Amino acid sequence: MKLIMQPTPETCGQACIAMIAGKTVEEVIKDMKTSGPTSIGQLIEALDFYGIKHAERNTRISKKNPVPYEFSILTVHTSSGYTHWTLLYNGKYYDPEFGLIEGEYTYGKITSFLGIYK
User: Fold this and answer.
1) N or C: which end of the chain has fewer CB within 10 A?
2) Average pLDDT estimate for 84-100
3) C-alpha dihedral over 96, 102, 107, 112, to 10 degrees?
4) Among candidates 92, 58, 91, which has minimal Cα distance to 73?
């Protein structure tokens, strides 16, 4: 996995898709037709567009599902008060805003995940 940083404060979703699909953020922005904030539905549509297999829906972190899959797009509620997308891959966080993070994720609370099957 190659870390791709988000070019603007609102393109974390596009950067996560770019990392998974092996594309540039600019290509993903063009294909998704947005350079603004993204919903989980838009991320799922982009994964489908690129032919990337994924879980059917976003799964909330709970007692039943306490940890994300090894390869997931994570929903993070940051300590600064905004929602953010980041990528978990092989035990490392590929965060398009904060960089590559090994160990505990400390930039916010991970509340849900979308499993990626690749």
Assistant:
1) C
2) 97
3) 80
4) 58
